[in-house]
Amino acid sequence: MVLGIGLGGFVDGILLHQLLQWHHMLTSTDTDNIGVPYYPADTVHGLKMNTVWDGVFHTFTWVMVLVGLAMLYSRVQHSRGRVWASRALWGWVLAGWGVFNLVEGVIDHHILGIHHVRGGPNELAWDLGFLALGALLVVVGYLVQRGATFTDAVRERARA
C-alpha cells in the first residue's frame, strides 16, 4: 500500500500539476479561510511558490516509493523462498493509490481547500470524481489482491 501511495501521488503530481497544469499545491480558488496563503499560478511569485510546494509534495511521494520498495525488499529477503504472486503486489498498489486519492482529496480539496482538482464551474464535480476514483481503486485493488496465492520460489528454481 505504501508503494501505491507514492506511485498514486506521482500520477497526481505529474499528470495534474505538471502536464495538464490544472492545479498546484497552493492554487486554491477559495478565499483564504484557514490561514494558508493563496498563490495564484498566473503570477511569477505565485508560480514560484507553487513550484516549491509541488517539489515538497513530490519529495513526499518519492519517499513513499522508497519506503515501499524497502518494505517489499525486506519481505522478499525474509520470505524463505515463499513469495506472493504479482497479483497481490498490484492489487495493494492500486489500493494504496486509492487511499492516496481519498486522503489527499478529503484533506487538501475539502478540509483545507488549498487546491482543487480543476477549478471553475464544475470544481466540486471534479473533486468528488477524484474521491470516487480513489474509492474505486481501493475496491478494485482489494478484489485483485484477494485472489493472490503464494509461489514457492525455491521449488520453482529447482524445476528450472
Please describe the structure with a list of short key phrases separated by commas or semicolons.
single chain; 160 residues
Question: What is this entry, summarized?
Answer:
Keywords: Membrane, Transmembrane, Transmembrane helix. The chain is mainly alpha-helical and 160 residues long.
Overview of this structure, please?
The chain is mainly α and 160 residues long. The protein has helices at residues 2-19, 44-77, 86-111, 123-146, 153-159; strands at residues 82-84, 150-152. It is elongated and about 65 Å long. It has a two-stranded antiparallel sheet with strand order 1-2. The longest helix is centred in the middle third of the chain and has 34 residues, at 44-77. It has five helices and two strands. The protein has one domain (2-159). Pfam families: DUF2243. Keywords: Membrane, Transmembrane, Transmembrane helix.
Q: Strand order across the biggest sheet?
A: 1-2
Order of helices and strands: HHEHHEH
> Total helix count?
5
Shape: elongated
Count of discrete structural domains: 1
Biggest β-sheet, characterized? 2 strands, antiparallel
The number of strands is: 2
Structural class: mainly alpha
Roughly how many Å is the radius of gyration? 19 Å
Quote the average pLDDT: 86
Would you identify the regions where 5 or more consecutive residues have pLDDT less than 50? none
Query: Could you give the distance between the termini?
Result: 32 Å
Topology:
Layout: H1 2-19, H2 44-77, E1 82-84, H3 86-111, H4 123-146, E2 150-152, H5 153-159
Helix pairs in contact: 1-2, 1-3, 3-4
Pfam families: DUF2243 (PF10002)
Organism: Mumia zhuanghuii
Transmembrane segments: 56-76, 88-112, 124-144
